[in-house]
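Loading example: each entry is read as two labelled lines plus one structure line.
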Amino acid sequence: MRKFIKYIIVLASILVGSMYLLDSLYSWVYQNGAYRNKVMWIHDLKNENLDYIVFGSSRANNYVIPNIIHEKTGKRGLNLAIQASGPLEIKVAIKEYLKHNYTERIFIQVDHSYNTEKPDKTGQLSWIPYMVDDEVYENFKPYGKEYQLFKYLPFYRYLMFDSRLGYRNVLLSSLNKGLDYSESKGYTESTGTLKKDEPYKFSLVDTPNSHFLEINKICNAINIEVIYFTSPIYRPEGNFEIISNHLPKYYNFSNVINDKKLFSDPSHVNKKGAKLFTEVFIDSFFNNKSTKE
Amino acid sequence: MLFNSIDFALFLPIVFILYWFVFNKKLKYQNILILVASYVFYGWWDWRFLSLLLFSSIVDYSIGLQMDKTSNLKSRKLLLFLSLLVNLGLLGFFKYYNFFIDNFTTAFTFFGGTIQPNSLSIILPVGISFYTFQTLSYTIDIYRQKLEPTRDFIGFAAFVAFFPQLVAGPIERATNLLPQFFKKREFNKDEAIIGVKQIIWGLFKKIVIADNCAQFANEIFANHTSFSSATLILGVIYFSFQIYCDFSGYSDIAIGTARLFNFKLMVNFRYPYFSRDIAEFWRRWHISLTTWFRDYVYIPIGGSRVTRTKQIRNVFIVFIVSGFWHGANWTFIVWGAINALFFIPLLLSNKNRVNTDTIAANSVFPTFREITSLFLTYCIALFGWVFFRANSIKTAFEYIEGIFKGDFSIEMLRLERFSFELLPLILILLGIEWFSRNSEFPLCSAKPSYIKVGVVIIMILVFGSFSIAQDFIYFQF
């Protein structure tokens, strides 16, 4: 029995040691490899001093084209919106950017996820490798004990999200098969054409969102202007107007594009739609015209 | 409780420690512990069905004792009939009631009648097909006077509910497993080390191969009408490895777990994809079920010692019943019939027992002829798997039609997630199995071999599918 117990202890040590080593390896790749997602890019941005940054979900990522803004206004900025990000993930992204960089204005896209306080199941994924970082972890900590395991149990977070953060991503990243954001300045095109012709219904509750309040506080302290906006939706039916009760600088563009051909699905525009919306965005925020809330 | 769950990872060491350190003084205590642990293991899923397990145990235990009391053949036959009626009655109700009602309704409607179907919302108790056959082997063997009935109810109930193989086999014969409950069991270091390795190997097959293949196979079968021929072929190849590694992986974990308690369960899979004909395939695939049907159905109805016509009938009966055992769906019946169709030519030409040894037993690589035989046998198995996996006969035919469309673009492989790891992983598995084909499983040795086991552990961590864990397929049977 003693020999068997010794055998089990050795195997358990191999297991724990492997988890520790693999965790270090994967984390190293996520720190140093080619970008497999935008969080890796944000994490690498250093000493940027830009005119504006756009944050939000894919509904900002697929809508605002920084290259067009630069071409037409000379303003330098980035689209740091990340697919499926909710208010919490947006806040974490802003904090991460502001650790080593500065900007004069921050644009935040808000929409039907306005009331969400909890992490988004998909949106949090890109942040999972950075959960060992205290500053990132503190944001997620109140939302479940699993985040403790992500932080303290080596490799657990990569096991639990193996299909998105596992060896495929790590291998591709280390083989330099990453995404290049430098050309597009963070904008990603949404392809396809909307087929269904149905209204997009939602209903928001008239309460403040703690994450947006915290963002306002952080940005006010360092003199950054924060502007919230809702990007276009095909046939929206809801109450976005209540957002302005809680966010001082809020612009509702949900109705500004009505042509079905400019959408890839009800809540995302295609490239043509993005070009049109970027024009609206420039007119509203960069041409010194007065804008209506 | 699933073998690949945190619950089991805690449960097993607790039972192990109690078994060897607390209850090791008396055999009876160990059997009580096994019984309690097995009921906890089963009740973790749904405690209500423990009553069925207990009921089956009481019925067969009592019938066994009654059979022993009488030498009157008529009475013994009546008792056997009662055991069959109770066990198969329960199985029939829980597993096949809705199937028969639905088909009866369809047939009645087809002939112009009107009938209100009375389908019930029945939950299939996990493992009922497995433990029913196990207890039946007990009463049948007593009837045949191959086995003495036991008077120790605890030991018998522990045999019926033995947690490593309770829910998905191997389906043990009472003649093999039951006597082990009444022999003094002492800790055997070598067996325990082999057991641990077998558990790790089983987890590798389940988590790395089966669960990864499942994601691919599920997607292809669910959207078969929109995929090319090449993708459909890949889909069924992935399913073939999913079902093999899922089920044989489970068996490995079960046998390995039993070894930790010094129980020896029967081998359930012997590298079935290294078979040179379909008869050999069936000697290597789900051996505990195949031999059960051979011993308790095929031979009693005459086996091959009857006229040619009756031989063919017997083969069809066994394969169709075996197919139906898997589930209440026509697809399983057709799957059984297809295997019978491929088996019968071998039987008629007396070639069904040609390949009884291991392929290329004395050489490293197979001959060209052996490779051809392997390939053809695998293709036959694949053809059958289409019916086994499809939700309906119609879907299976659509799938096969799609394979012969002749479009060989591999669209699924373009998806980044799946593009480069699955096929090499399967090839690695086949390579490992090929070089281990003379042993029970690839890591089967009492030497600790830390490096080999360590590599397997790392492969499980790196390549395993943890986020999309799949249930064991055979739980549904």
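The mean pLDDT of chain B is 90.
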